[in-house]
Amino acid sequence: MSIKAQRIFPLSFSQKSIWQSCTLPNNNNAYNLSAKIIFNFKVDIDKSEALLRQILDNNAQLRSTFSMQKGEPVQIIHPEQQMHFIRHSINSLTEEELQKQIQKDANEPFSLEHGPLIRFHIYSYSEYKHIFLTSAHHIICDGWTVNILIQEFLGKYFSNNTAKIEKSLQKIELNNEYFEFTKWQKKMLCGQSGEDLLSYWKKELGNEITQVKFPFTNSSSSSIHTSNNFSGITKLRFFSIPDKVFEIKGYTPFIILLAILKLFLFRYTGQSKIFTAIPMLNRPKREFRKIVGYFVNTVLIYIDFKKQYNFSGLLSNVRDKVKEAFRHQDIRYHYL
Prior knowledge:
Layout: E1 7-10, H1 13-22, E2 32-39, H2 45-57, E3 64-69, E4 72-77, E5 84-89, H3 95-107, E6 118-126, E7 129-137, H4 143-157, H5 162-175, H6 178-190, H7 192-205, H8 243-249, H9 253-269, E8 273-280, E9 297-304, H10 311-327
Parallel strand pairs: 5-6
Antiparallel strand pairs: 1-4, 2-7, 3-4, 6-7, 8-9
Helix pairs in contact: 2-4, 9-10
């Protein structure tokens, strides 16, 4: 698809939350997202660069910059953008020096206004060993997107069908644009679905979200609350229970660890209302799962320890809360 002019789009709710965070002081690289791959084979670096260029040209989000227009943040899609691809020869570096260099490159701040918002580095030990680093600003991608890009790059690299490569790359721009998600999201939130979601979260969270306040001070001693509102928690022997028992009840490792975290926070703070934030994939429609962009949403899981729980009861409560959060994840935390 040929793109002949800049295109300007409003930000999604998730992008707006990052934009606002990026205006805070000392937040230069807080939203850097990076991934590293080690290649233990001979790499055609020229071919790699050409493929990355194609991927950049065919994914609008990767050619984005952000600025203010008429008092509102907007996303600007550029018809072309210079690709940041740097080759490093690391023969003279020690392993420690190399890791420091990779960390430095991964943490280099991005300019939302000037771009580019994605960078590629390749560090070559020798002809048969390389490290490939991708670093991007979170406002244009999430962890799922990084996996999409890596899989696409590797798929194209090991494919010998040039025509198939070109066709598959074109589909991204034509059929799977992030802006379709932005439009869908705003339309959904303005309709009955949005009202239902907002009603659920208002009922679930109430009027006040309390922060967890640890009783620790700068002194060497710390006071620790030992509230007894929870029964049977002095020794957690549930790890000896057969895995099938957990599977039958739907207690995944995530549910178990989240329950333990909430229990820990309750025990060490003495606060009965414990809110924990967890990230959700938030790609509710199948067609969104192949789109490059930032979708992840944060949802709050609320447990009130004023109720009496044994550990099994706590697990059940956390499981049910997480299921409901999944069902109602489409409303943005920023929107709430």
